[in-house]
């Protein structure tokens, strides 16, 4: 992948990475930090790191290699999070590998996009937040992670919000030190969110997203959630056989069979509700970066429907396995924090049309 982009796409923009590469070039050449007017996320840490790399060697390829480093970090952190949640070494490695080969993640990781860096920061905050709520260990590293995550994407606001909910669900009055640390988490996040405003870096697109944050519609709501089953199924496809065994081995009860039928029906229905407009990668037209249109191999036309069907089958097994093993993993405040955090990352999908890469923080945490 790296070799292809180095030879065939040395200066060719991939996805939207030119939107973030231009501020890098301006900053590295002494023209200050100025965001492209159409960007909806600040991406300030990524631009700053890119400018440092650009000063060493002006090369779009070097910027994409920087993104690959954060993608690799996200893969490792998924394995670590799986281990923290109770998975063994083998299945933790499978979880990390599953993210690495996930087509949507692989696609954005090969260009100077913001998703890999933010996902790595989000996973780091999730691991530290889970350890705090479960074991009472307050890591000071959580504060700079929250600051950098908020400077990168406004979605980081969901992290302290989920932490607050998890702390309140513990069934006892929070200790004063926990409240102080939670306040520090909110302050670190707020500092990152306010910085683009006080420095006048905020763009018209950011203002538009804020103004539409409270306006959702059924027209957006249904496709937003209808697209989720196929992405969840595709991401967890490496666990397919294990999920099937956990779901239907032995003698599953009638309730398990009903859940299976309901999940399968929901998955198939989602294929009808969610059209292909969100399939930046998971459509024939979108295979590879969307900025490189053209004739694709005809075999893809027959492979993609099969891929969607496999994804729905895995999603069905995932739901059935989760239902059957629900007593093995009780809903603790720490686990609720992870699930609530995933839901907060879905907020953007409720207010504007999005692409499949926007779902990465949600499906990875789920």
Please provide a written account of the structure.
With 366 residues, this protein is an all-alpha fold. The chain is built from 18 helices and no strands. The longest helix is centred in the C-terminal third of the chain and has 26 residues, at 299-324. The radius of gyration is 21 Å and the shape is globular.
Task: Summarize the structure in short.
It is built from 18 helices and no strands.
Q: What distinguishing features does this structure have?
A:
single chain, 366 residues, mainly alpha, 0% strand
In percent, how helical is the residue content?
A: 55-70%
Tell me the Rg in angstroms. Answer: 21 Å
How would the global form be characterised?
Answer: globular
Query: Mean of residue pLDDT?
Result: 79
Summarize the helix and strand pattern as letters: HHHHHHHHHHHHHHHHHH
What is the topological layout?
Blueprint: H1 2-8, H2 17-28, H3 44-56, H4 60-84, H5 89-100, H6 103-109, H7 115-135, H8 142-152, H9 158-168, H10 176-198, H11 204-211, H12 218-226, H13 228-235, H14 240-248, H15 254-273, H16 299-324, H17 333-344, H18 360-365
């Amino acid at each position: 992948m790296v070799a292809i982009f180095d030879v065939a796409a040395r200066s060719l923009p991939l996805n939207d990475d030119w939107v973030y590469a231009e501020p890098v070039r301006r900053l590295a050449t002494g023209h200050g930090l100025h965001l492209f007017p159409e960007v909806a996320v600040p991406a300030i840490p990524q631009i700053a790191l890119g400018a440092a790399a650009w000063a060493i060697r002006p090369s779009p390829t070097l910027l994409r290699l920087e993104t690959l480093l954060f993608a690799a970090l996200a893969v490792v952190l998924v394995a670590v999070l799986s281990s923290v949640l109770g998975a063994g070494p083998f299945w933790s490695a499978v979880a990390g590998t599953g993210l690495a080969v996930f087509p949507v993640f692989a696609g954005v990781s090969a260009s100077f996009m913001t998703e890999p860096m933010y996902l790595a920061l989000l996973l780091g905050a999730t691991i530290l937040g889970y350890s705090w709520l479960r074991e009472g260990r307050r890591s000071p590293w959580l504060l700079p992670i929250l600051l950098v995550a908020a400077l990168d994407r406004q979605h980081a606001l969901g992290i302290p919000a989920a932490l607050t909910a998890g702390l309140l669900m513990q069934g006892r009055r929070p200790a004063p030190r926990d409240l102080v640390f939670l306040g520090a988490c909110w302050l670190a996040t707020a500092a990152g969110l306010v910085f683009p405003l006080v420095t006048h870096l905020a763009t018209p697109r950011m203002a538009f997203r804020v103004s539409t944050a409270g306006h959702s519609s059924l027209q957006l709501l249904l496709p937003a959630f209808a697209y989720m089953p196929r992405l969840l199924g595709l991401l967890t496809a490496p666990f397919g056989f294990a999920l099937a065994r956990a779901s239907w081995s032995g003698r599953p009860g009638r309730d398990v069979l009903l859940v299976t039928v309901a999940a399968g029906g929901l998955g198939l229905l989602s294929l009808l509700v969610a059209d292909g407009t969100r399939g930046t990668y998971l459509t024939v037209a979108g295979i590879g970066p969307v900025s490189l249109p053209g004739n694709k191999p005809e075999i893809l036309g027959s492979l993609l429907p099969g891929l969607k069907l496999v994804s729905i089958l895995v999603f069905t097994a995932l739901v059935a396995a989760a239902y059957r093993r629900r007593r093995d993993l009780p809903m603790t405040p720490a686990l609720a924090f992870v699930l609530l955090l995933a839901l907060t990352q879905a907020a953007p999908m409720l207010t504007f049309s999005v692409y499949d890469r926007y779902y990465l923080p949600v499906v990875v945490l789920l």
